[in-house]
Amino acid sequence: VHIQTSRALMVISLLLGFFGIIVSVVGMKCTKVGEEDPATKGRIAVAGGVLFILCGLCTLAAVSLYATQVTYEFFRESTVPINARYEFGSALFIGWGSASLTMLGGSLLCCSCPAKEQRGQQYYRQSQPSTAREYV
């Protein structure tokens, strides 16, 4: 049962990551989609970051669930010899690392949204007064 649950969480994580990539690319400043409103583009980027954080949490839950089950089975008194029991492999450590990096990337995307006081602010270039110009 725990293997099927881990598989389901990993599939959900893959789907969330795929949609997170799509939403984040749309929310980047270098794309032309939704170019007329930078605040909307910031919110789209934050939505992509939230999807990445959820993706990382699903990955972390799946890997940790499997590691908990492996630890439980290893220390349980059974008739299975010690050399035939499962142990932590490199895939678990890769899973923990990828979950951490995915959540870090999602949190960085969430920090890219402009602050409330800067959202509607426009900056205009002030022209020089005519007296400051020198004619040669």
TrEMBL record:
Pfam hit, one: PMP22_Claudin
Highest rank taxon of the organism: Eukaryota
The keyword Transmembrane helix is annotated on this UniProt entry: yes
Localization per Swiss-Prot or TrEMBL: Cell junction, Tight junction; Cell membrane
Record's keyword annotation contains Cell membrane: yes
Membrane-crossing segments per the record: 6-26, 46-68
Protein keywords: Cell junction, Cell membrane, Membrane, Tight junction, Transmembrane, Transmembrane helix
InterPro entries: Claudin, PMP22/EMP/MP20/Claudin
Membrane topology category: Multi-pass membrane protein
GO cellular component: bicellular tight junction; plasma membrane
One MF annotation (Gene Ontology) recorded for this entry: structural molecule activity
Family: Belongs to the claudin family.
The name this protein goes by in its record: CLD19 protein
The species this protein was found in: Jacana jacana
Gene behind the chain: Cldn19_0
